[in-house]
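Subject: Interface between my chains keeps coming out wrong

I've been trying for a while to get a sensible model of this assembly. When I model each chain on its own everything looks fine, but I need the whole thing in one frame so I can look at the contacts. Pasting all components below, labels as-is. Any help appreciated, I'm running out of ideas.
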Amino acid sequence: MMKNIPISALIGLFFTGLYFFVAFTAPLIAPYGMAEVVGDVWEPSSAEHLLGTDNIGRDLLTRMIYGGRTTIFIAAAATILSFVTGTSLGLLAAVLGGWADQVLSRTVDLIMSIPTLILALVILAIVPVTVPILILVMGLLDATRPYRLSRSVAVDINVMDYVEAAKLRGEGRVWIIFREILPNALSPLVAEFGLRFIFMVLFISTLSFLGLGVQPPLADWGGIVKENKDGIVYGIGAALYPAVAIATLAISVNLVADWVLNRTTSLKGGRG
Amino acid sequence: MHPIIKLVAQRLALGLLLLLGASALIFGLTEALPGDAAQAVLGQSATPEALANLREEMGLNRPALTRYFEWLGGILQGDLGQSLTNKLDIAESIGNRLGNTLFLACAAAVVSVPLAIFLGLLAVRFRNRWPDKLISAITLTSVSIPEFLIGYVVIYFVSVKLGWFSSLAMVNDSMSFGQKLYAIALPAFVLTLVVLAQMMRMTRAAILNLMQSAYIETAELKGLSTFQVIARHAFPNAISPIVNVVMLNLAYLVVGVVVVEVVFVYPGMGQYLVDSVTKRDVPVVLACGVVFAAVYIGLNMVADIVSILANPRLRHPK
Amino acid sequence: MNEQLTHMTKEVTAGKLTRREFMGKAAALGVSAAMASTMFADAARAAGPKKGGDLKFGLFGGEATNSLDPATYASSVPQTNGKQFGDLLVDVAGDGSVETVLAESFEGSADAKVWTFKIRKGVEFHNGKTLTSEDVLKTMQRHSDENSKSGALGIMKGIESMKADGDNFQITLASPNADLPYLMADYHLIIQPDGGLDNPAAGIGTGPYKMEVDEPGVRHMYTKFDNYWNDDAHFDSVEVVAINDATARTAALQSGQVHVINRIDPKVAGLLGRAPNLTVHSTPGRGHYVFIMHVDTAPFDNNELRLALKYAINREEMVEKILRGYGSIGNDMPINAAYPLFDESIPQREFSIEKAAEHYKKSGHDGSPIIMRTADGAFPGAVDAAALFQQTAAQAGIPLEIKREPNDGYWSEVWNAQPFCASYWGGRPVQDQMYSTAYLSTADWNDTRFKVQAFDDLLFDARAELDNAKRKEIYSQMGMMLRDTGGLICPMFNDFVEGVSNQLDGWEVNANQEMMNGLISRKMWFV
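Reply #2:
Try treating it as a single job with all components included. I did that and got this:
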């Protein structure tokens, strides 16, 4: 089995695994306390501080490790929430059609017609900002995207001959969704899943940027970018580390997603 | 084509209903926000007397529903009203800013949409070989970096170090078309990077999905070149999901570019809306919200209609 | 060589030699670039201001919701707008004294209750109308009557009556106030034709520049007003561009797209200052970054706990890390050496973990988390400052918990509403005004709920006291009261950190408001 995994996917798996491992074991491997001020502002990297220090003199490596934990946890939870909600409603709407489809689709249209960021900004100004609420707001607002995608793919598949055949055989809706439509809709959905995860990471960064993210001294990677962004144009790289972390995490997750995508198409008996 | 016209009419009616719903939702949410316009305008220098006087003048002491229906009545007569905070005519302010927003969005779209689809096709053609992987890696990187960071890096190199482009994307009426294009080059570039990945990846995934179909095999057996097969046979059938993603991204270019506007100091709609939300300037928030909603609903309608036209089975329902 | 240099500087003064030519020739004579640059600047200044050129501001603090109505000014761009098209009656000079503007002269009665301003003659508004004392009266009435929605309403409260009489405008106060002229220098009180009653947001005043384009949150364009009464404005046009993003602002100055920027982040000020084409000016001011507690709300009603928190904050570290040295440490009172009549002998409160722990123990606090609210918008670096405070408090065993609030709504929902939060005060020109604004029992903005009769009495005594030595003594007592029993934790006073292109000359120090008290377009010129 392992032999069939291409190099790219292995790299992706390795880094994804590494980031998740670091996230889970953060308190054990971080060299300093998360909020501990240990040095001067924006110290360059040294033996004591491998990545240097941040904008108020905290160890950047420690901040990155804890930041990764926050980012990965919130983004993953929100992505899963978004995908499960969005996809199941989307498939349901496609199969049911008629009024159910209209009501669901129009509600989604209504929510999507207001810019997500503005909506999040307003909602988070009304309700208190805590981690569960962040996940809930991000996940539900974002569920509209998987909904639209899954519905549009499923509508196309729903009129395919093999689905018609299944319906004529008298198969139930659940059977049709899970045995006929879902497997055939899987590849665009998997491709989307990887991207949605990135968007979630960016979403939480943007919220932090607007002062609505996690509570200090906790930070996410986007927040660390923001805390240190002023140094960028003067050659202080503190903001680049979290940006690189976000980018490599995103690429790794998507390399894995690509590999899964290939495997699912192979399963369908295609030529791979 | 008669059913199509009927469909469009249906969708239009639905769109108007949605707009109404969106305006009510936006009004409800802004009302639920803590504070009001009078407080926001006076800020730290608010005294109770000044606050009360300003509320009176802004008409904020009347019931919320009355104000909503007054606004609705105005808009039905084509009157967007006046801003609460600076008394300027909203239609005029929005007109300028919407023009700027659409200009930037168009510039970014003209580059990014064809490029994304072309790169997507290219990636399928060279699937799993180095061009595919390179395209994948570059687009993924570009989408994973926060917009403001790309913006700063671009400003630093292209504007501060090299001095090729202005870091302030200021446009105004006295500029020629060419000058305007030059002014928005940097934000348009950043936006292109931001929206490219999703469209390209969807194109690639949707076409790959079709490449296993029997009719593609037939086409290949006919001896057509791989690229011809992809472009002529696979692409048309993959249009539905692609158009959907393209429309979502076009909508994003119009409604979601606040951060890029801030970084490049571009006078677009996003900043106007955020400022107005902050200052609880409800009529402006409503007007901007409705314009955004209209753009989104319109683009969606196009996506739906194209999807239906592209799929013969949907075009002729049994 | 000396003779040649002298000759060259004379040519510069006569306007015959450009900077580039001068630098080239000086280099040929073996003069270092830094030296030559200074010599050129001196010579150019000796030549006096040069007319012409288009000045561009790139400023933080401009929103799409801004209005030109002076009553609504609350941020930098509108305040700068006001200084272009409008004039005040009097203004605060660089040395902290009051200088006349539209008033030719002013004087107070012996008991400091009646103040008379003689209005300047031959001043024309941009709409062609001539300035009269009626315009002044109506302006002041608009800001002070019961329908007013002006930000200046608070400072106009002590006025009993006003009248216009020929060339004179007269104010009668309910109780004496030796500092009244300073109140008239408030930036809201721009004199408008007919008091601005017909159209307050028209942008018409007597200032040196006439409004041409008003695009709130984007840009404001002004051209020179031909019939301006004074001759201190040197530019052909002035453009004010709103650039709220800090990095975009510094980039715009560095690449020469604007000539002046405000609010430079102290963290990058040193780095920005290395750029060859600009100068970073740091002006010690009266603005201060604070953490405020409501002294009437538990657990902050306990002075031991307040003292514990005051001792637990490391002021030096804050100035070092949040202000990067562009500021000075505070002493838990809102007054510093930038104020007239400041008492230097008041002892500085030192950071002490032991004392903090001791007072905390004495307070008998139950050890539940003490919630302190902050937001990025409270002051630049407020969230970071809170994180530093939390760390030092933890060392003293004080369980401080930070709660970050959204910027949006911070000033209406958190500040002056929640019992403990981060905040910012811009400072006032004189001690009386600062204390009356925020520490008098009846003050609307008493954001620490500090209500002490003895303190109020001292404040009124000081107002009526015309002997400066005695006033200084009273202010010193008041400062000590606040320092030891007040709800104000004041770790630092911030400097105004601003960037100005080297193409401009004529910078002066004026700490009353940012950017030379808003007078750059009147006092500087292109070299």
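Reply #3:
Confirming on my end. The mean pLDDT of chain C is 89.
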